[in-house]
Design a protein that fits this description.
The structure holds 2 protein chains of 2 kinds. By secondary structure, chain A is an alpha+beta fold. Helix content of chain A is about 30%, strand content about 15%. Chain A is built from 4 helices and 2 strands. The longest helix of chain A is centred in the last third of the chain and has 13 residues, at about 110-120. Chain A is globular, with a radius of gyration of 18 Å. Chain B has a single domain, classed as Methanol Dehydrogenase, Chain A. Chain B contains 6 helices and 41 strands. Chain B has a 5-stranded mixed sheet, with no helix packed on it. A 5-stranded mixed sheet of chain B has the order 16-17-18-19-23, with no helix packed on it. Chain B has a 4-stranded antiparallel sheet with strand order 2-41-40-39, with no helix packed on it. Chain B is globular, with a radius of gyration of 22 Å. Chain B starts with 5 loop residues before the first helix and ends with a strand. Classes of the chains: A alpha+beta, B mainly beta. The interface between A and B is large, with 35 and 41 residues.
Chain lengths: ~130, ~575
């Protein structure tokens, strides 16, 4: 079985195939995208602001130009996963920016900025 | 209509040639006639594209294939910290050199020695300018009518006295009321107007205006909205999505004196990417064709009214906009052709006389120069896309080229003697997940994307040839037929502009900092110099006191350049992104 899926390197795939006489058994275990795992931790905290809130959707809409791979890959902007910065620092950075990064305090609501900071902090130290 | 005669212009040019001295006083005398006839004035580089042919070619041949091996650094100017390098085109006029650095600083230098004459640092509204990711770019200036003109990232156009650098006027041209923020491209002078376009392709705003500003007073003469400006445009954006559709014309276009028209490329629509996929005419965030995004617009120079257009990327689903400002006027067999490259790796050849009435331009030919594309299967000779690869909501692997395109915004060059068009491509791809983004408030100017992505090397060319790394090409072609004459592969895609000269040379400022001079006939490398850092700006040539110079700006750092550490590692993983230098070479 071949898995050729998006973000192959970050996707945790466990595959076991057992062949026996006259028996073909293929067992596929969990397939976890670390960005989905992080988002799943954060989304429920903010659904009282917005039903079906998705922090990855918000990240894609506002942050993807510079921060590739939902924050896992360094590009025009730095990799965000594994940051040692505090949540407060990240909130400040998103709100006010630091040239050439724009400040988003006029584009995003405070709870959206906090959700993005929570998501970034929840990302494990994984790089693409 | 012109206010000065060609004869007067020729006299002025001749006077400069005989004086042969870097007279600051003469630098103020760039009349409209001089600009109109700039193609015949190879001692100077007086506008972004050198002249209205758009060839980026100078007839100067003191430096040529035989002696280029002796080319050496004459002088350099370091403007101190310049975030994301220097991205503009220097201008050279009557012995002076002018150039811009980031955040709106202009330098005026002696063209023979590099000695500073004056400089001006615009005071930028930092909060407004840094509200976008188009900050702090500045890609050049215009000179004429005694002034030097520069747009700013906070929506202003500034006129400075060309001799003294004193401010003549400093006007806010564009407010933030509809979500647009500022200018990054160089202006161009047409008659007694200064033309420049707004950025904003990825912002939830409207209407990406192109302005004509009176050169003397600084008041707006006309404004053309690239989206939402006429009923045809509004009808092509379902659900009033033009109010958050981006648009803009952020690079420097050109002018065709024969038809008195301004030619300009426009930016992509917002949001980038469309989760609805193939049903984009009826549903999704911006149902319809999204006119006039990702298009070439041709405007009456006096009124700003739409004379003609062609949408190169109907309902652009890939951010392959038409903002490349390069328009090459090439006449052959009695036909006038306007050649324009699109970010998607396509060269469009328009019938330059098919203007008037606001109709579609006639396309004489269209051909692909990108090599690893798979977002379409190809393009017809009539300029229509074939076999679109839509990107509906979800994950898509190995989409080529990446958002950065196969062609970046810098210019190629054309050698008219050899009928050879030199053009660069960049060959890398990405994995992308397309999402359904939340609709921002109308005219809000918010960042508005519909995807997250990761750049990567291509796996194969469009013809199926396997590929194992990202790369770039320098291609030499017949510009009208697209016939390939020679091709050079670059390990690191070159992001800077090219220069063609009468010395049968083509100059290539490399991403890794190596500055190449190649034989225009064969592509053979004849000379190379290490500039110390990568380049993604302009390169020109000019003459002072009978001596030819080649000037190039260096400095690294941009959205496209940001992919290089991941794609290539060294030297880009340690390359500075806050320095840049003007390097000037001579024999």
């Amino acid at each position: 079985m071949l898995f050729n899926v998006f973000m192959t390197r970050l996707t945790y795939i466990s595959l076991a195939a057992v062949w026996a006489i006259g028996l073909n058994i293929s067992v596929t275990y969990a397939e976890d995208d670390v960005t989905d795992v992080a988002a799943a931790q954060i989304n429920p905290k903010y659904t009282h602001y917005k039903e079906n809130f998705s922090v990855k959707r918000l990240f894609a809409s506002r942050c993807s130009w510079c921060h590739q791979g939902y924050g896992l890959k360094e590009a025009d902007g730095p990799r965000l996963s594994g940051t040692d910065k505090s949540k407060e620092y990240i909130i400040e950075q998103i709100a006010y920016g630091k040239s050439p990064m724009p400040g988003f305090r006029k584009q995003l609501k405070p709870w959206q900025i906090e959700a993005l900071a929570d998501y970034i902090k929840a990302l494990p130290d994984v790089a693409l | 209509m012109t206010r000065w005669t060609t004869t007067a212009a020729v006299k002025a040019i001749s006077a400069v040639a005989f004086l042969g001295f870097a007279s600051q006083a003469m630098a103020a005398d760039v009349t409209w006639d001089r600009l109109l006839n700039a193609q015949n004035d190879d001692a100077n580089w007086m506008m972004y594209h050198k002249d209205f042919s758009g060839h980026h070619h100078s007839g100067l041949k003191q430096i040529n294939t035989k002696n280029v091996k002796d080319l050496k650094l004459a002088w350099q100017h370091n403007p101190a910290a310049t975030k994301r390098g220097i991205q503009g085109f220097p201008l050279a006029v009557d012995g002076m050199v002018y150039y811009t650095t980031t955040s709106g600083t202009i330098w005026a230098l002696n063209g023979a020695t590099g000695q500073p004459v004056w400089h001006h640092a615009a005071k930028i509204d930092v909060e407004r300018a840094e509200g976008t990711f188009y900050n702090p770019y500045n890609r050049g200036l215009a000179i004429g009518h005694g002034n030097v003109y520069m747009g700013t990232t906070d929506g202003r156009l500034i006129a400075l006295n060309a001799k003294s650098g004193e401010v003549v006027w400093d006007n806010e041209i564009m407010t933030v009321a509809k979500g647009n923020k500022g200018f990054t491209g160089a202006p161009v002078i047409v008659k007694d107007m200064v033309i420049l376009g707004a950025n904003g392709g990825e912002l939830a705003g409207c209407c990406g205006p192109i302005y004509a500003v009176d050169a003397k007073s600084g008041s707006v003469t006309w404004q053309f909205d690239t989206i939402g400006g006429d009923q045809r445009s509004r009808d092509s954006w379902g659900n009033d999505s033009w109010k958050i559709g981006g648009g803009g014309g952020w690079m420097t276009g050109s002018y065709d004196p024969a038809t008195n028209t301004v030619w300009w490329g426009t930016a992509n629509p917002a949001p980038d990417y469309d989760y609805i996929g193939g049903d984009w005419m009826n549903n999704g965030p911006r149902p319809g064709l999204n006119l006039y995004s990702s298009s070439v617009v041709v405007l009456d120079a006096d009124s700003g009214e739409l004379s003609a257009y062609f949408q190169e990327m109907p309902h652009d689903a890939w951010d392959f906009d038409s903002a490349v400002g390069e328009f090459l006027m090439i006449e052959k067999d009695g036909k006038r052709n306007m050649v324009h490259p699109n970010k998607g790796g396509i060269i469009f050849v328009y019938d330059a006389d098919s203007v008037g009435g606001g109709n579609e331009l006639a396309v004489n030919n269209a051909y692909m120069i990108g090599e690893t594309y798979n977002y379409i299967k190809g393009v017809t000779k009539e300029g229509r896309l074939v076999g679109r690869r839509e990107l509906p909501e979800g994950k898509h692997a190995d989409v080529c080229p990446a958002i950065d395109g196969a062609i970046s915004w810098n210019t190629g060059a054309y050698n008219p003697k050899r009928n050879t068009y030199f053009k660069l491509t960049q060959e890398f791809c990405f994995d992308i997940e397309v999402v359904n983004p939340e609709r921002p408030d109308d005219f809000s100017g918010q960042a508005y994307f519909g995807a997250s992505w990761t750049s990567k090397a291509p796996k194969q060319k469009a013809d199926g040839t396997p590929v194992d790394a990202a790369y770039g090409t320098l291609q030499a072609r017949d510009p009208l037929t697209g016939k390939l004459k020679w091709r050079v592969e670059y390990k690191y895609p070159v992001l800077a502009s090219l220069l063609s000269t009468g010395g049968d040379l083509v100059f290539v400022p490399g991403a890794d900092g190596m500055f190449d001079a190649r034989d225009a006939k064969s592509g053979k490398l004849l000379w190379q110099s290490n500039m110390g850092t990568g380049a993604h700006g302009g390169v020109i040539t000019y003459m002072v006191d009978g001596k030819q110079y080649v000037a190039v700006v260096t400095g690294w750092g941009s959205h496209v350049a940001g992919n290089y550490p991941g794609l290539f590692g060294a030297p880009f993983d340690t390359m500075s992104t806050d320095t840049g230098t003007l390097m000037v070479y001579s024999l």
